[in-house]
Amino acid sequence: MEESIARILTELEEINQIPSTHTQSPLISPSTLLDLQSLLSAADADLISQFFDDLPSKSLSPSSLTNLLSFTMDSSPSHYLLASKVYLSLLLSPNSPVFTLFTPISFLSLLRSLRRAFKNRASPQPEGSPPSNAPPNKKGKRGGKGRGTRGNVRSSGDCSEEVSDCFDIKEVFNVFEMLVSVLGLIHLDRFPDSLKSLVQTVCEIPLMAMEKIVNSGSFNRLMGLCSRVLSGVLRTEHGEMANTAAEVLKALSPLILTAKSQARSFALEFVTQRMKELGNESDGVKKAVVNFPRYLAQKAPEKAEPRALAVDSIMEVVKVMDFEDQIGYLYYVLKMTHGKANLRLLGVDLIAMMLMSLRDPFGVDSEIKIRDYWGTKCLEALIMRCSDLSAGIRARALSSLAQVVGFLSSDDRNKGVLKEVMGLSEDGEERPQCGMNDLLRNRCMDEKAAVRKAALLLVTKLISLLDGSFDGILLKTMGMACSDPLVSIRKAAISALSEAFRMFSDESVTTEWLHSVPRLITDNESSIQEECETLFLELVLDRVSRVGSDCSPQKGSASSDSRLTAKSLEREMELLFPGGILVLLKGICNGEVTPWVKKICTSLGKKKRLKPKVAIALQNIIKTSESIWLSHSMPIEKWTAPAGAWFLLSEVSVYLLKAVDWEFLHHHWQLLDEHGAKGKFQSPRFQGNGYEDEENIESNSVAWAGDRVFLLQTISNVSIELPAEPAADLAHNLLKRVEKFDMHSTEVNAHVKALRTLCKLKSSNPEEADQLVLRWGHQLLSKAYQILEKYISDNKEPNTSNSFFTPPRSGSRKRKRAATMSRLLSKAVTAVYTVGSLVVVCPTADVSSIVPLLYTVVTSGNSDPKLNKLPGPKVSLKQTAPSLYIQAWLTLGKICLADGKLAKSYIPLFVQELEKSDCAALRNNLVVMMADFCVRYTALVDCYIAKITKCLRDPCELVRRQTFILLSRLLQRDYVKWRGVLFLRFLLCLVDESEKIRQLADFLFGNILKAKAPLLAYNSFIEAVYVLNDCRAHNGHNDSKSSQTEGRLFSIRGNDERSRSKRMRIYLCLLKQMAPEHLLATFAKLCAEILAAASDGMLNINDITGQAVLQDAFQILACKEIRPSIHRGAASDTAEVEEEGGDGASAAAAKGRAITQAVRKGLIQNTIPIFIELKRLLENKNSPLTGSLMECLRVLLKDYKNEIDDMLVADKQLQKELIYDMQKYESVKARTTAAEAVASMQNQSVFRSPPCVPKAATETHPGNNLNRKLSSDSKVASAMADAAAEATARSVLREVNKGAMTPPLNSISMPKLKSNQGGSSAKTDRPLNVLESLRRRIDVEN
C-alpha cells in the first residue's frame, strides 16, 4: 500500500507541474484514480493520514488535489465517474480535512459529471484529438511530455475512446450513495448556490435517465436514490427548510408538468408522500407544499392535453393537503376564474376536478347546514364562466359543468342542491347568476360549434334534474340544433333530445322529438341515418311493442254509464296505454312527420330489423280500443281507432306479411265499409251545441277516411297472403266503390293502388296483370267521361232554363236543381281526381277522350275569341266550380307527366295560368306540377324558370315556401342552374316576412350553397347591390317594361331604415360565405365598380337609386364582416381548433397572414385616393352621403391604420387634409347631437301656454331662467361637442401615426367659416314673418 501511495504522489507531482491553460487541463490517469480509490476504500486511518502528511513533501496540498480531481471530473472523456467517486471518498475518509477538500467549484464538477453520465455523448473521436468542446491543442515547450502523459492516461483505462459511450449504472449508484453520505457531513447552508445546483441536477436526472436506463428495476433504484438525496437536502443544517422546500418543488415542477412518464410519477410521489411527511414535522415544508399548486397553476401550459395533465398533477397534490388548505386553494381558484383567459380556462378545469374529487362538496354529510357551501360557490363560478367572452372558456365550462352534474347527480342527496343552485327547483330561491334555461338557450345557439356541442351535452346531463318540466323554447332550440351544419352538433342534439324523450313522455317532448329526429333519415351523414333508425326502433317501435303486448281486448271497464264523456274515455285509454303511447301514435300521423316515418320503416324493413311483435302490438291496440268502446255500450259507428295506429300498421305490414291477421283486417274493413258507405259516422262526443257537433262529425269523418285509406294500404300490402276468393271479392268491392265517385279524395288513391296491387299479385304473369289494370281502368275512364260531359253540358247555358218563364219557376225547383247540380259537381270533381290517380298507376291508359273535356274546363269563360268558338260553357267554371277547375288542372298535369307530346303543347298553358291565377291553392299546385315537369322535361321548362321564380314574391306564404323548397331541391339535384336572375331572386327569401322561409333561406345559403357553389356569393355580390336597389346603371340590366316590373318586384327600394336593414342583412349573409381572399377582392370590386363609378360620373348620385347603391357600398365597406380576421384560430378563443395546432398548420397560417397583409396594404393604398376624390365630389354637390362616407373613412382609418400609415408618411399634405376633415366632421356630428339633446329639453315646454306675467316681472320669471339655462346649455354642449370632435379625430390619427401626436390645428391652414349664430333677429323675426305669410296664404285660399 505504501508503494501505491508513492506512485500516487509521484504522478500527482508530475501533473501538478504541468501548467493549466484555457486549451488543456491536467488530468489524473485512470490507474492513479484506481490506486486512490483502493487507498480510500480500505478506510485505514493511518494510511490515509500518512497520505495527507506526505502531500507537502511533493509540493502538494489537499486543495491542489481537489483541483486536479475537478479537472478530471470535467475533462475526462470516460473516467469522470471514477474521479467523482474518488472525490466523494476523500470527503468520507477518516481524519480527512473536509472543509479544505470541499469547495463549490469541485462540487459543481461532481454534479456536472453526474449529468454527463446520462447525456447522449457525441460520436467517438480519433485518439489524440481534443474533446469536442475544446479547440485544437497548440504546440508548446512541454507539449510533448504533456501529450505523452495524457496519451498514456487515455490508453490505460478500461474503456477506449472508441467505446467512450459505455455506461456503468453501478458506478452511478455508488456515486449517489456516497453523495447521500456526504450530505450528512457537509452543511450546505453556507453554500446556497451549491445547494441550488444540487437540487436542480437531481431533479433533472430522472428525465435524462428515462432515455438511458431501460431496466425498470434499475430505474426505480435510481429514483429511490434521488429521493434520498432530496430528502437529505430538506434538513435544517442545509438552510431554512421553507426556502429549500421551495427550491425542490420549483425544480420538480417541469417533471410534474411534463407528459405521463416514470419521471412524472417519481416527482408526484415525492411531493405527495415524502414531502407530505416532512411537512408534518416542519411548518416551512408544509407551507411550501400548500403553495405548490398555486405555482403549478401559474406555470400550466395553455394547450389542451398538457393543461389536462397539469390539472391532474395539481389535484394529486391538493388531495393530500389538509381540508382547510384545500378550501384555501379553492378560493384561490375561484379568483383565477376572474383573471386572464388562460387562468380562467385552467380555473374551470380545476373547479370541475375539485367538485368530483373532494369529499362532500355540498355539505350533505355535515351536521351544520350551511347554505353557501364551497361546492355551491364552485357551481356558481362554473355557471358564470358558461357566459365567458372567450368561446373556448364557454365550451370548457359547459362541458365541465356537464361532467359535474353527471357525477354528483348519482347521489340523490346532491340533486336537491343542484336544482337549487341552477335555478331548476320550484321551491328554491332564484339566484341572479343562474338563469339556467336562458343560459342553455343562448349557448345552444352560440356562434361557436364547440360551445353548442358542450351546451347540448349539458342538457343531456341535466335531463334527470328537470323532472320533465322542459322549457318550451329550450326544446325548440334543441330541435333546431338537429339541423346544425356540423355533424358533431347534430349528433349531440339527437342524443340530448332522445335522452329527454327516453325519460319523459310529455307531449311537448314527444312532439319536438318527432319533428326533429326522424327527419334526419335523409341526412347526408350515414352514421346519423343509422342512429336515427336505431332511435326510432328503440323509442317508438319497441315502446309500442311493449305496451301493445301488455294490453288485451278483455281489459277495460264494463260500465255503461250514460253520463260517460269522451274525455273520461280518453283518460281510461291513457291509463290502459301508459308511457304516452297515444300521444306518440297521434304525433306519428302528423303531416310533417309521416314522410320521414315512411322512409325509416322502409329502411328498417329492407334491413330486416322490423319484428313481428310490432304489427301484433298495433293490432292489439286497435282491438283493445274497440273493445273498451263496446264495453261501455257505445255505438260502434261512432268509434275510431287511436290516431296513427292504422298508419303505422300500414307501413310495417309491407315487411311483416305473416304477422297481420286477415280476419282482423276483414272485420274492420266490413265495419268501415258498411257504416262509411251509409254516411252514418258521427262525432263520438255527446255534449256541445249543434255547431260543435257539425265540426266533430266532419273531423270524425276525416279520421274515418284516413283509417280507411291506411286499412286499404295494409290489405294491399298483405294481399299476397290472402286466399284467392276473398281477394277477388275485395277487388270487386273496391271497383264498385270507385265507380260510384262519391269517396273522399284521400280514399280514391288508396282504392286505385289497392286494385292495382291485387291485380299484380293475383296474376300469373305481368302481362296478364297489365291487361287486368287496363280493363278496369278503361271502365273507370268511360264512366268518368260520362259524368264530366254531363256536368259540362248542363252548364253551357246556365240562365236559359228560366229566361222564358213568366212568372219564373218556383223556389223549390231552383233548390232541387241546385242540389242536383251540387251532387253532380261533387261526382265530377271525384271523377276528375280518379282519372288523375288512374294515370299515375297506369300511365299507358287511353285518356284521349278525357283531355278535351279537361281543356274545356280549364279554358271556360276565356276572353280569347278563338276559344269562344269552341263548344263548352260560356260561364267560367273558375268562378262557378272552383274545385272542379283546380282538379282539372291537377289531372291535366298528371296526364302531361305521362305523355311527353301532350306536355310540349300544354306546358305554356300551365305557365300562363301560374302568372294570372288569383287562387293561392291553384298556384301552389301549379308550382308543384312545374317542378315535376322540370324533372321530366328539363329542356322544355328551363326557359320558364324565371317566371316560376316570381312565386317567391307571391302574396301567399304557403306558395312562397313551396316554391322555395321545390326550387331548392331542383338546384341541389342540378335540374336548375344558378345562373341569370335566379340567385338574385332567391336573396329576398333571406328577409321574407315569414320566419320559416327565412330559416330555410339561411340554411340554404349558409350550408348547402356554401359547399356546392362557394364562389356564387362572390361573383354575384356587386350585381346584387344594384339589383336590390333597382338601380339600372349596372351592365346586366335590361330596360324593357317587363324587366322593370320584375326589377321592382325583386328589389328593396328606398333609403329608409327598414329597407337599408333588409339589404344589409342580405349583404352580411353573402359576406359570411366568402373566404378571406374573396373578401379582399370584394372590397376592391366595391371600390372599383361603385365608388370609382360614382366619382367618374358613371353612377348618377343625383338619382335616388344611385344614392342608395352608394350608401350601401359605404355601409358594406365599414362593416366588420368584410374585413378578414388575421387572428382566427387563436388557442384562447376557439376550442375546436385548440387540438389541431401543428408546425405545418402554424406555418401555413403565418404564410396566409403575410399574404393577407400584403394584399391589404396594396388594396387600401389604392382605395384612399378614390375616397378623397369622391369626398370632394360629394362636398361640392352638398350631398347627404358625405356623412356616410366620413363614417366609412373613419372605420377604415381605425381598422387599416398600419396600411394607411405607410401611405400617409409619404404624403404629409394628405395626412393634414384627413386630420382636418375628420375633426370637422366629428365636430359637426357632435354639435348636432348636442343640439338635438337641447331641443328635446325645450320640447318639454313647447305645448304649455305661457302664463300671464306683468312686464315688470318678466325679468324674474322662471321661464326666462329656463331660457337662459337652455342658452347656456347649448353653448356648453357646443363647446363639449368641439372638444369631443377634436379628441375623436386626434385619437384616430394618433392610432394611424402609431402614437405620434398630430400637428395642432393652428399649424394647418384652414378656411375661415362664417357663423350663422350672429344676430338674435334671425331667431325671432324670420320665423314670425314666415308664420304671417302662411296665415295670409290660408286666408286667401279660404
List the helices and strands and how they pair.
Layout: H1 2-17, H2 30-41, H3 45-54, H4 62-75, H5 80-92, H6 98-101, H7 104-118, H8 143-155, H9 169-185, H10 192-212, H11 216-233, H12 241-256, H13 262-281, H14 283-299, H15 304-319, H16 323-336, H17 341-357, H18 374-385, H19 391-408, H20 412-421, H21 436-444, H22 449-466, H23 472-481, H24 487-503, H25 507-516, H26 526-550, H27 566-576, H28 581-588, H29 594-606, H30 612-631, H31 645-652, H32 662-677, H33 690-717, H34 724-739, H35 745-761, H36 766-794, H37 811-841, H38 850-858, H39 865-868, H40 877-880, H41 882-898, H42 900-916, H43 920-936, H44 938-941, H45 945-948, H46 957-972, H47 982-986, H48 995-1012, H49 1016-1019, H50 1021-1028, H51 1041-1049, H52 1057-1071, H53 1076-1095, H54 1104-1118, H55 1143-1180, H56 1186-1199, H57 1201-1210, H58 1212-1243, H59 1262-1296, H60 1321-1341
Overview of the molecule:
Residues 138-148 have a biased composition (Basic residues). This is Condensin complex subunit 1 C-terminal domain-containing protein. It comes from Hibiscus sabdariffa. Residues 1304-1322 have a biased composition (Polar residues). The protein is mainly α. Helix content is 68%, strand content 0%. Helix 7 (104-118) runs parallel beside helix 10 (192-212) and helix 41 packs antiparallel against helix 42 (900-916). It is elongated.
